[in-house]
Structure formats: C-alpha cells, structure tokens
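Entry 14. Ran structure prediction on the chain below.
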Amino acid sequence: MRQSLAQSELHTLRAQLHPHFLFNTLQGVSTLIDTDRRTAQSMLLTLAGLLRKVLEYGSTDLIAFREELGFVEAYLELEQMRLGRRLQVRWQIAPEVHNALIPQLLLQPLIENAVVHGISNSRDGGWIEIRAYLQVRLLVVVIRNSIGGASQSGLGVGIKNTRARLRYLYGEDAAFEFETLEAKIAVARLMVPAFTAEVAEAVNA
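Output, structure tokens:
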C-alpha cells in the first residue's frame, strides 16, 4: 500500500509540472505576438516539439540524462528566442553522465526558476551555467545563475516539487540544496544515485 501511495504521489507531482511549464511558456510567447510575430511562431513550433517529447516519456519515472539534457536545451532555446542576448548559457557536461538515469523533467523547473527569478527581470540579462558530472556513485548536477533586479514572486513549484520527487524516488540516497550567494548568484545542486539503464534492467530482472 505504501508503494502504491508513493507511486500515486509521484504521478501527481510529475503531472503538476506539465500545466505549470505550459502556462509559463505560453505567457512568454504571448509577450511577442504583437511585437515579433515570427519569433512567436518559432517559439510555438519549438513548444509543440517539447510537448510531444513529454507525451513520449509517458509515465516513465527515470530517463537517460542525455534525453533530459535535450529537453533542457530545447527549453533554453525557447527562452533565448524571447530574451535574445540577455540570456547567456554555459554548459559543462561530462561525457560519462549521458547514460545515467535521472527523473524526467527534474531539471527544467529549476532552470525555469533561474530564468524567471534571476534573469528575465534584469534589464541587462544574465547567465545560467549547467554542470553535470559523476562523483563516486553519484550523478551531480549544479545549476548556477546570476541574479539581477527584483525577483518575481512565484508559486515555488520548482524547488518543492524537486525535493518531493527525490524523496519519493530515492529516499535518503539523494540530496538537493539551494542557496543564494552574496555575489548575487543562485546555486541549485542535486545529487542522485548514478544508475544506468543497464543497471535498472538488471535490478528489475
């Protein structure tokens, strides 16, 4: 019964992200419809591709990091269409992480937080840095971003959802930290067991 309840809660948490992500992205598109219709149209096409990808994931809890990374790259492409040169993205992805498993849509809400609360409200824009590497038997992902201007209030979906999903999936074997440094930099750091598809199949066999 506890396992069934946990699975139900995971499904609810995952489903919570879909309308949240869609609503926020459509808001971004709406700001460009009157001023830059061509870019707005490109954003809608990219968004359609992202939604297709979400449907392909279905109810799968874990996906390969390379797939999650592809989703994040497409999402940041959307934001760069909207923000232009105001958004700078830096990548530091170790090759060995690509086959590691990670909960689907785990990174996108954290990166969305970085864009909404750290960059889009700054006249000069800012930067996001995504770093991923293996440390012993852990997959470590660090998202850093500049903070400029007054932060917009939000529902807190990203951080709350991340902590809850990690707790239900990994228990005490995963960790998530978020902090704001004095240098006007926000840092989100998560660590999960570095399972691969091959290991998961062996465990389930």
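Residues 1-6, 199-205 have pLDDT under 50 and may be disordered. Will compare against last week's run tomorrow.
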